[in-house]
Specification:
heterodimer; A: about 800 residues; mainly alpha; B: about 80 residues; 2 strands; Histone-fold (chain B); CENP-W/WIP1 (chain B)
Chain lengths: ~800, ~80
């Protein structure tokens, strides 16, 4: 029934539409279609309008009724028309559903919009911009259009303008809303309530309305390619697509800025870290001519600087840059920048200054040590100065703290100290420095490098060593010593001679060094003088240890110590502490060495893994660190123990010469026994450590500290004792004299390893390797054979 | 990957007290026993280490479990 009615109504509607269309007013249907958007609102109006109903109107009403019925009975009919009708039905009061039929469809609406928009563009009718109002206006316009033919034609003019205004409004909305007019907004609000459309405060209201209104609804009316939500700028500024207003710095400006920065840094009391950082900027690369590795050392220097801050005082003045005279430590770290720049500019002098500056920090002992250290250091070779310079440079690179350029004369003195300051540098950094320095050296000082390369191996070694030592903060002096030591060592001490051999060797080396030392008159007397003076300060300063090392080498020719820079450090330390007298006993030296060695490993873990040179340097640093800590003995004792432990299991792994090992083994200062470093198996080792640890780690499934082995060892010892006792008891109980498998099995059962649910064989299968399993578990093979042979 | 302990060492251990003889392949069983003990030791140590929320077994972990373990593996 309903369907029939619906169909009928549809048919009727169609007919009506056909009839009605030609009867429409001249106003294009598009307008009417636009109006359909806001059909709903206007429909009521249409209804309310007093109507001189024309026959068509009456017909429309009838259709409406029918539609209502159909709507209530069923949903929208499938056909277009019925759908439109349905829509119309849904809308509260669709005055002329027939009219809307065509327009209501989306297609129709769009059509209307496009058409109306084109039309309306020309018109500017101020009307209150209110969404509702607009819609209403649209509706009214639509209605007016439709009603144009009829009595509602009176409204036509107004309605006609309405859509135009609305269209205009929509368009104006699209305009980038520059300002928000409050008054207009208020007007809009007022207008919203009222239905007056003629009140026009178009311009502002439109804009404001546009702003307020969601762009979406307006976009419906006005089809433009503009982004619909352009209006909502205030709300979504962040979403707008804007090219970031970035200023692209020009290269020149950038360079200038960098330059300025440098200058600034030089003149300011920048913390070491800051300086280092600024220096470390990649900008440096642009400026550094020969320093290819500037950046790297900068970083390291940062680290160094940060460490050295403890020693350095932040007073830096421009004047210092060039005048560094052993000045107080204030030489300033910021000089790094200056020094760096100067280095770049000029080089040697600056470098030296830098180094000197660095050394200045250690004024305390510098004065005393300076004499000896720089001299012997300088003596080393002609290129020594070069090397020194290089070192300085290195120091610069590595330790930007090196401050300003001092007179070359000062540099030698300060050189030895400079490194000491940097002692705090961590070993790895030092190593890095070394590497970098080496790079830098090569790049920077061609001369020195050339010379060095040309020089013999020992000299090269010395230089390198010195550099390394320098960077490693072992001081130029130390470096020299180490170099010497190394050279001698490298030449002859490649083996692991025994302590005595080393001693002799060192003596020889020392002797070799002596001539070097004596080259310059100052050295020997200075060394002698310094040695006594050194003593009191040794305990405090690493430098002293370093200096002592030198001194020791020269004077004492302690065994082994000199052979290796490491040893040297140690000996120096020991000497500082223990032996202020020449001819330090080997034991003392060994002790000190041990301590030093111990400390070094304690502080920096796997020294043996490092190459000898590095080790030495590290050791130096370590020693320094250890000393800086305070009670050297204490610091050395603990690591000694650890080192002993480590050394014990790996006798042959250490690269340190046997002398060092001997020293290491000598634990605290009290004990003085040169332990012959050989593959001495720990006496009470139950089982090989490798086996035990591997098994333990396998079972543990997590990381295991390697120092648990002794504990495990003890446990196993006790266990084995008990095991033996038990097995013996069991076999005795069985009146046997041999321990058999059954005994062990019984033991395991009693221990709880073997249970009914875990029989022995299962365990055997689980744990033992195949070969053993075969032996234990009889396996039947073809031919009625059992493996292993069971002769029972 | 399973390792093998030196059999001679084990034999010597078993023969500690007296010159008692060790039967054939008995030391293999002892090896098995050793593995089991180490396994238990490692397990206990690991648990102890986890109690301290450290993934690494340290010395004090092992020490703490040692005594209890030795007591338990009495025979």
């Amino acid at each position: 029934m309903d369907s029939v009615e619906e169909d009928v109504s549809a048919r009727v509607l169609l007919r009506n539409v056909l009839h009605s269309e030609p009867a429409r007013s001249p106003v294009t249907r598009s307008v009417a279609r636009n109006a359909t958007v806001s059909l709903v609102r206007r429909s009521s109006r249409v209804r309310n309008t007093p109507g001189n109903e024309s026959p068509q109107v009456a017909l429309r009403k009838k259709l409406k009724q029918k539609l209502h019925e159909s709507a209530t009975q069923s949903p929208l009919p499938p056909s277009k028309r019925p759908r439109s009708q349905g829509r119309a039905v849904k809308t509260p009061a669709v005055a002329s559903s027939s009219l809307y039929d065509e327009d209501i469809t989306p297609r129709g609406l769009l059509r209307g919009i496009i058409q109306t928009e084109a039309e309306a563009s020309l018109l500017l009718s101020g009307q209150p911009a209110v969404p509702e109002a607009n819609q209403q206006i649209v509706e009214t316009s639509l209605h007016s259009n439709r009603q144009s033919e009829g009595p509602s034609g009176l409204e036509l003019p107004d309605l006609v303008t309405e859509p135009l205004s609305t269209v205009i409004r929509g368009m104006s909305r699209r305009r980038p809303p520059p300002t928000f007019n409050v008054s207009a907004f208020e007007r809009q609000l007022d207008q919203q309530t009222g239905e007056e459309e003629n009140d026009v405060t178009q311009e502002n209201t439109e804009e404001t309305v546009e702003q307020d209104l969601s762009a979406g609804c307006k976009s419906v009316l006005s089809l433009t390619l503009k982004t619909p939500f352009m209006n909502v700028q205030s709300e979504r500024v962040g979403l707008r697509r804007k090219a970031a207003t970035r200023r692209q710095p020009s290269v020149d400006a950038f360079d200038e800025a960098v330059q300025k920065r440098f200058e600034r840094h030089c003149n300011q009391d920048y913390t070491v870290v800051q300086d280092g950082k600024t220096l470390g900027d990649s900008d440096w690369q642009k400026f550094t001519l020969g320093l290819s590795n500037v950046t790297m050392p900068d970083l390291t220097t940062d680290i160094v600087m940060s460490n050295t801050e403890l020693y350095l005082q932040p007073t830096v003045s421009a004047s210092v840059l060039k005048d560094d005279d052993d000045g107080p430590p204030e030489v300033g770290r910021c000089e790094d920048g200056k020094a760096y720049e100067t280095n770049r500019m000029g080089g040697e002098h600056q470098e030296e200054q830098v180094v000197d500056d660095f050394q200045d920090k250690l004024n305390e002992h510098l004065s005393k040590v300076c004499e000896t250290e720089p001299e012997p250091f300088q003596e080393m070779e002609d290129p020594e100065t070069v090397s020194q310079i290089q070192e300085e440079k290195e120091g610069l690179d590595v330790i930007p703290s090196s401050q300003e350029n001092e007179p070359v004369s000062l540099s030698p003195e300060e050189l030895p100290f400079a490194p000491t300051q940097a002692m705090t540098e961590p070993v790895p950094q030092i190593q890095e420095h070394e590497g970098k320095v080496s790079d830098i050296q090569e790049s920077e000082v061609e001369k020195s490098e050339m010379r060095e390369s040309e020089e013999e191996l020992p000299s090269q070694v010395l230089e390198r060593i010195t550099r390394r030592a320098y960077h490693s903060e072992g001081g130029a002096v130390v470096a020299g010593i180490t170099a010497r030591g190394r050279s001698t060592k490298s030449l002859g001490a490649e083996q692991y001679p025994t302590g005595k051999e080393l001693q002799s060797f060192t003596n020889a080396s020392a002797a070799e060094e002596l001539p070097h030392l004596h080259e310059e008159p100052n050295i020997s007397p200075a060394s002698a003088s310094t040695s006594p003076t050194m003593k009191p300060y040794l305990s405090e300063m690493h430098q002293t240890s370093l200096a002592e090392v030198q001194v020791d080498e020269v004077e004492d020719h302690t065994e082994g110590n000199t052979s290796k820079p490491f040893e040297m450090h140690q000996t120096s330390l020991a000497e500082v502490q223990d032996d202020e007298v020449k001819g330090v006993t080997q034991g003392d030296n060994s002790m000190s060495e041990d301590e030093n060695i111990v400390t070094s490993p304690g502080h920096h873990s796997p020294t043996p893994d490092l190459p000898a040179d590095e080790e030495e340097q590290q050791e130096e640093d370590d020693e320094e660190d250890a000393h800086s800590e305070g009670s050297e003995e204490l610091s050395m004792q603990t690591p000694a123990f650890i080192r002993q432990r480590k050394e014990v299991p790996t006798p042959g792994t250490l690269r340190t010469p046997t002398v060092l090992k001997v020293l290491n083994t000598g634990p605290a200062p009290k004990v003085v026994k040169p332990r012959p470093r050989q593959k001495t198996r720990p006496a009470s080792h139950v089982l090989p450590k490798s086996y035990v640890m591997s098994v333990f780690k396998h079972f543990a499934k997590t990381k295991v500290a390697s120092d648990v082995y002794p504990v495990i060892n003890e446990i196993l010892q006790k266990y084995f004792d008990r095991l033996a006792d038990d097995l013996e008891a069991y076999s005795a109980h069985a009146k046997r004299k041999t321990i058999e498998i059954e005994d062990v099995e019984l033991l395991m059962r009693r221990q709880g390893f073997v249970t009914d649910s875990a029989p022995v064989n299962v365990l055997i299968e689980k744990f033992l390797p195949l070969e053993y399993r075969k032996l234990l578990i009889p396996v039947a093979t073809s031919g009625n054979k059992v493996i292993p042979n069971q002769r029972r | 990957m399973s390792k093998k302990a030196p059999r001679a060492v084990l034999k010597s251990h078993m023969r500690k007290k007296s010159d008692i003889r060790v039967g054939k392949n008995a030391d293999l069983m002892v090896q098995l026993n050793l593995l089991l003990v180490l396994h238990r030791l490692a397990e206990e140590s690991r648990l102890k280490a986890f109690e301290e929320k450290t993934a690494t077994i340290k010395v004090h972990h092992v020490k703490a479990v040692a005594k209890k373990l030795l007591k338990s593996t009495r025979g």
